[in-house]
Design goal:
single chain, 283 residues, alpha/beta, Rossmann fold, 2 domains, eight-stranded mixed β-sheet, two-stranded antiparallel ribbon, 10 strands, 37% helix, 21% strand, globular, Hydrolase 2, exosortase A system-associated, hydrolase activity, Hydrolase_4
Length: 283
């Protein structure tokens, strides 16, 4: 199905997995174009996924127009895929990525790359390091590097909701919420049921403790000021990976945080920066 003649085809379908179906969008390169490779897109967490749909669609179409195949997958319990978000687990999401990557491998005779946004970037790295075969390259859009820090920020959304609802007196801070999770209580945060097991899994994730990923990494860091230094922890991590021989390329981008904007937003600077890396090279 093409949006109009000359544009790459986009095919929605449901991918069968051992735990139900996953909604996918497949963007094929233009007919008659040699496939340069394939990207598997890994979306961010909870509402950030919805806020980022437009940017993901724009980038997927841009990749496809330049000869890449792209597969977007809604992970277990997310979007239009089977399962409840409250039953989601990190390992299930990694199983989904394995199924999606295999689907691509069976259809595209070219390298398969990963492209992750925010917590999806951390999932991409964890998936890559757990595989026996190396992923050719990984594109990280504003990556989350420490799961515990990310989860603390997410829990603060619940505190903000409590304050707006006049329940500030019941507010015991993120420590109280973590205590509830530790007691096995699920939490409803910003419309999403968070299982204690998933929160605990995310808390343990720390890319700084990972080595030997073995893939070329394109790290796109977005900020309002292109001259603002990279956060110290991220700079240290990139330096450590480079010391190990990893090919890590940092791409600072001046732009807005579209994944957390009140309304659906675009970051054309990020699209341009990504296109500049993967645009076809002509003789």
């Amino acid at each position: 199905m093409s949006e109009r003649p000359g544009l790459p085809a986009m095919q929605p379908f449901f991918l069968d997995t051992v735990r139900g179906t996953r909604f996918c969008l497949y963007h094929a390169p233009p007919t008659g174009t040699e496939c340069r490779g394939a990207f598997l897109y890994i979306h961010p967490f909870a509402e950030e996924m919805n806020k980022s749909r437009r940017m993901a669609a724009l980038q997927a179409r841009a990749f496809a127009a330049t000869g890449f195949a792209v597969l977007q997958i809604d992970l277990f319990g997310c979007g239009d895929s089977a399962g409840e978000f409250g039953n989601a687990r990190w390992e299930i999401w990694k199983e989904d990525l394995a199924a999606a990557r295999q689907w691509l491998v069976e259809r595209v005779a070219a390298p398969v790359h990963l492209w992750g946004l925010r917590l999806g970037a951390l999932l991409a790295l964890d998936f890559a390091r757990s595989r026996g075969d190396a992923i050719d390259s990984i594109v990280l859009w504003q990556p989350v590097m420490r799961g515990e820090s990310f989860m603390t920020q997410f829990l603060r959304l619940r505190l903000a909701d409590d304050m707006l609802a006049g329940r500030a007196e019941q507010n015991g801070g993120t420590r109280a919420l973590r205590d509830a999770l530790a007691r096995g209580e699920a939490l409803e945060i910003a419309g999403y049921d968070i299982a204690p097991a998933l929160a605990a899994e995310i808390d343990t994730l720390d890319a700084a403790a990972w080595s030997g990923i073995g893939s070329a990494i394109h790290w796109f860091e977005i900020s309002a000021d292109a001259n603002r230094p990279l956060p110290h922890a991220s700079a240290q991590l990139i330096a450590a990976w480079r010391d190990e021989g990893a090919d890590v390329r940092l791409h600072p981008v001046q732009g807005a945080p579209f994944w957390s904007a009140p309304e659906i937003a675009e970051c054309p600077e990020l699209l341009s920066a990504t296109a500049a890396i993967f645009h076809p090279v002509h003789a």
